Amino acid sequence: MATTLNQTTVFDFAPKDREALDAQVRALENLDRADFRELSPATADRFAQLRGAGTFASVKIPGADPDVHLDAGVFVPLTAGPHPVVVMPAPLAPTGWRSYPGMLLNFALKGYLAVAYSERGLAESTGKIDVAGPRDRADGSAVIDWILENHADRVNPDQIGFAGSSYGAGQSLIIAAHDDRVKAVCAQSAWADLGRSLYENQTRHIKAFEALVALFGEENLSEEVRSVFDDFRNNKNIDRLLEFAAVRSPNTYVDRLNARRVPIFLGTYWHETIFSVPAVVDFFNELQGPRRLLVMIGDHGGDEILGFLGGISRPTATTFRWLDHYLLGTSNGIGEDGNVHAEYMHNLFDLRKSADWQSYTQPTRRFYLDQPRQGATDGVLTSRPASGWTTSINAGTDTSADIAEKLIQTGMLERLGAPAVYETASISRRDAAVWVTEPLAAQSQLTGNIRLRVTVRPSAAAATLVAHLFDVSPGTGKAKIITNAPYTLLNEREGEARTIDIQLQPADYRLPASHQIALVIDTKDDFFADDTVPGSRIELSSPEGSASYLELPLADIAPGD
Fold first, then answer.
1. Tens digit of pLDDT for each residue in 392-445?
2. Do 503 and 196 contact (CB within 8 A), yes or no?
3. Which residues does 476 contact at the CB level (< 8 Å), separation at least 6?
4. Which residues of 32-181 form beta strands (DSSP E)?
5. Hey, what's the torsion of the CAs at 347, 348, 354, 360, to 10 degrees?
6. Residue 560 pLDDT > 70, yes or no?
7. In 3-state terms, what secondary structure has residue 92?
8. Which of 230, 63, 54, 27 is nearest to 143 (CA)?
9. pLDDT by residue (tens digit) across 450-487?
10. How far apart are CA 216 and CA 275, in angstroms?
11. pTM > 0.85: yes or no
């Protein structure tokens, strides 16, 4: 789970945050005798409130298999209860359940029996990594069994919720789909479709994959996981990877969740570089029970760290309210303030609330791809269909148009108000095709799903495209990225044209008047394992009867809005 900059690994905590987490875990483990001098005064006061309210212990919970013992932290209230229960599977971090001390603190102060645990093979838990597979889901049920067997006199079995971030988010959703005892779920930095996250539009997300594997540790993988991962790395047996991923994807079990109308809160980020945001949105739209989607600025895990440390952030604050309402029946307004909450890009204080995704998005407009005007280099995005043109680019050469400089960290800077800035003049027009709109007449809002249709003819049998959408300031040529997506054509005949549709990540972006929207298509990005053949070429065109276009949810902003 990434937090702030200078992580020791992609998903680890920054050193200062790791120190704070460790200090809070020590405070939990020594509630009755600690002086809390390691903590800030405000945090120390909150820990002091737990003295006499309950007991905390680090324990080993038996997993679903005899050789599996799950490392866990458990807070048990001393009062008779019955108390609600929250179970928190760990994020994918070396700290395991020790990532959640502030969450344990705040749930304990609210009167919950709170359990955080590290999944099998993670941190100090035994067993082999199952990546949210059948053994992981069985472990989740075993944790519930352990709670009910050891604390039956303290808990209400009808008030059990799961809350997790990242790795723990998907685990929570899948466990809830298979165990009727789970009555509500909160999934921060969630995933819905593991297949689409690893393999988007026939393109392998290799940088995120390798970072995940490095954190798991090859030696901790089960034989099945190791075999599937080896094949994926070598671009073999992709169908097997997709079957493996489907078993480990919450959207596979949406009917189970809907049958019980499980209340589900999902959190994600606009520039998520780990999991598929379109898949999370699709999953949200399929849910039929109480639901909430929170989309935030930045990248994976960007806001949760404050809650992990006991502070209040949007995803953790929503988690507390969600479980209070749907487990305890607390009247806190969580069900009346809209199902979609979204931070507008580059403004943490602008939170839009809507009843559903459809009412949140803007109506779509088509911008057709056309050839350059006389004397210009770049093509035009125009309101009228344009066909009969052809352009081509070199394949296999990277350009300065990339989806991000670094996994997660680039998005963290965006959250801090420093989004990446691109020099559009530095993008090689031999290796990328560029189309731009006319300067926008008014300030405009782009909110919702984005789709590109284009006809492609690679000179080789396989080719990868990467589509980027930029906000460009015409005066300076400087740009900020709005969204992106890759697409790979596989096993095609050399020289055969094909019309493709590319769904880009959704966006919520405000464009100043006079700015331009630019579409840049190139063939390589370090985030993806591309199948482009170096030295080949890719022809892009707009044939008669099948004009190429970009579909944008874009509308002018009325003065004063």
1. 999 999 999 999 999 888 888 888 889 999 999 999 999 999 999 999 999 999
2. no
3. none
4. 54-62, 69-77, 83-89, 113-117, 155-165
5. 40
6. no
7. coil
8. 63
9. 999 999 999 998 899 999 999 999 989 999 999 999 99
10. 17
11. yes
Measured distance CA(194)–CA(250) in Å, rounded: 9
Read off the tokens for 441.
């007449």
Instruction: Give dist(CA 272, CA 2) in Å, integer.
Output: 12
**How is residue 276 written in tokens?**
């598929």
Task: Tell me what pLDDT residue 344 has.
Answer: 84
Per-residue pLDDT at 2: 40
Indicate the burial class of 363 (C-beta count within 10 angstroms; 0-12, 13-18, 19 or more): exposed
Q: How far is CA 242 from CA 239, 247, 530, in A?
A: 5, 9, 18
Q: Got the DSSP string for 336-372? A: TS-SEEEEETTEEEEEEEESSHHHHSPPEEEEEEEPP
Q: Give the pLDDT confidence score for residue 10 in this predicted structure.
A: 52
Q: Which own/partner pairs from 484-488 qualify as long-range (CB within 8 Å, at least 24 positions apart)?
A: 484/403, 485/200, 485/201, 485/452, 486/200, 486/201, 486/203, 486/525, 486/527, 486/528, 486/530, 487/201, 487/202, 487/203, 488/201, 488/202, 488/203, 488/462, 488/463, 488/464, 488/530, 488/531
Note the pLDDT of residue 11: 63
DSSP annotation of 204 reads E
Most distant CA pair in the chain, distance: 81
The token duo for 545 is: 């009867």
Q: Please name each of the domains of the chain with its CATH number.
A: 15-359 (3.40.50.1820), 362-556 (2.60.120.260)
Cα–Cα distance for residue pair 167/119, rounded to 1 Å: 9
